[in-house]
């Protein structure tokens, strides 16, 4: 079950959150290869965030998934979520950090 958790200093009042949730859910599901029904998205706005020494629009995101993450998937997730934040919340790509974790990494490393 992939979970995308985003915190931003942007005020979300007046933002079409349904479209943000819908697009993020579809994107994560498609890139990781999991059904949309398994994807959880959390979005927290008006979080005090300073990035680069200022409080201009910024965001911190984290994706945790049980499987489905590799270097290429990680690259695609960062690009796609960055695009969503830029188009839906006016957060520049240069002011967004995404941490990506696969909870199954390292479990079977001794068998490789």
TrEMBL record:
The gene is LOC113695223. It comes from the Eukaryota. Belongs to the MIF family. One of its GO terms (cellular component) is extracellular space. GO terms for molecular function: phenylpyruvate tautomerase activity. This is Uncharacterized protein. Pfam families: MIF.
């Amino acid at each position: 079950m992939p979970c995308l958790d985003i915190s931003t200093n942007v005020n979300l009042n007046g933002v079409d959150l349904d479209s943000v949730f819908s697009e993020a859910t579809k994107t994560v599901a498609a890139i990781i290869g999991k059904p949309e029904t398994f994807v959880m998205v959390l979005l927290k706005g008006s979080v005090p965030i300073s990035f680069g020494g200022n409080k201009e629009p910024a965001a911190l995101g984290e994706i945790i998934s049980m499987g489905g993450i590799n270097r290429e998937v990680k690259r695609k997730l960062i690009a796609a979520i960055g695009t969503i934040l830029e188009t839906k919340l006016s957060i520049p790509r240069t002011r967004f950090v995404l941490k990506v974790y696969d909870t199954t990494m390292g479990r079977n490393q001794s068998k490789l």
